[in-house]
Amino acid sequence: MEAAFDPAAHNRAAWDAYVEQGNEWSRPVTPEQVERARQGDWSVVLIGYEPVDRSWFPADLTGVEVLCLASGGGQQGPILAAAGARVTVFDNSPKQLAQDESVAVRDSLELRTRLGDMRDLGEFEDASFDLVFHPVSNLFVPDVTPVWRECFRVLRPGGTLLAGFLNPDVYLFDHEALDQRGEFVVAHRLPYSDVTHYTPEERARKFGADAPVEYSHTLGTQIGGQLAAGFVLTGFAEAPHHADKTAEYMPGYFATRARKP
């Protein structure tokens, strides 16, 4: 009998491999960027390549408890730590976390890392953080409901969740036709996942045997899920997809700012 597919284990190995390959979301920030952040000149990316509006953050990050959720890679966490925040980076990939750890050692930053699945933050007590920074990553889990529930639990009253996620409409199109020929061929009924729409052999041929598996999530579960968890939305932004032709026609990413009452 074939063992049940474990997306967390599969994607952990996939992102570890991405680090070895030099994936763009695994390249640590430079010492110069860290030093500028120490001087108050900093930015981080939540969706696409555009920096997050600084008004979405507290005016002063000094002493602010920040959870960088599914946000390893040595990018956002070290910058926020250099800006004065007390940062915990939580990620499913040991090698992604190692990038943050290496920057922390290199630049003498106070930053802690924790390994785990974004759907289970059980190691943290209720009301542990002032801000959760969650860049585009929940496409790697089959259900986002526990992510929003856990974010709400670990935030203090008045705390902020900054979340980025993929526009589910990008999953409508045939991957190969879009990437290889620039053709928009509607091929998939939503919600989509690499696991349900393709066999393992088809996934290996289309994306590579070791590529992460992805899951589309409706706006009802992304935005409505935050509301159902108890959040109040206070900001919204969008950006083009950074890597495919859909950017010419529609936003590929959405970002929300939400507050825990």
Summarize the structure.
With 261 residues, the protein is an alpha/beta fold. The chain has nine helices and nine strands.
Q: Tell me how many strands there are.
A: 9
CATH class: Alpha Beta
Strand content: 15-25%
Stated plainly, the CATH topology is called Rossmann fold
CATH architecture name:
3-Layer(aba) Sandwich
Our Rg estimate from Cα atoms comes to 18 Å
Chain-wise SSE layout:
Layout: H1 7-21, H2 31-38, E1 45-47, E2 50-51, E3 65-69, H3 76-82, E4 86-91, H4 94-106, E5 111-115, E6 129-134, H5 145-154, E7 155-166, H6 175-181, H7 194-197, H8 200-207, H9 219-229, E8 232-240, E9 251-259
Parallel strand pairs: 3-4, 3-6, 4-5, 6-7
Antiparallel strand pairs: 1-2, 7-9, 8-9
Helix pairs in contact: 2-3, 5-9
Account of the protein in words:
With 261 residues, the protein is of the alpha/beta class. It has one domain (7-167, 215-259): Rossmann fold (3-Layer(aba) Sandwich). The chain is built from nine helices and nine strands. It has a seven-stranded mixed sheet. A two-stranded antiparallel ribbon has the order 1-2. Helix 2 (31-38) runs parallel beside helix 3 and helix 5 runs parallel beside helix 9. The chain is globular, with a radius of gyration of 18 Å. The model has no long low-confidence stretch (mean pLDDT 96).
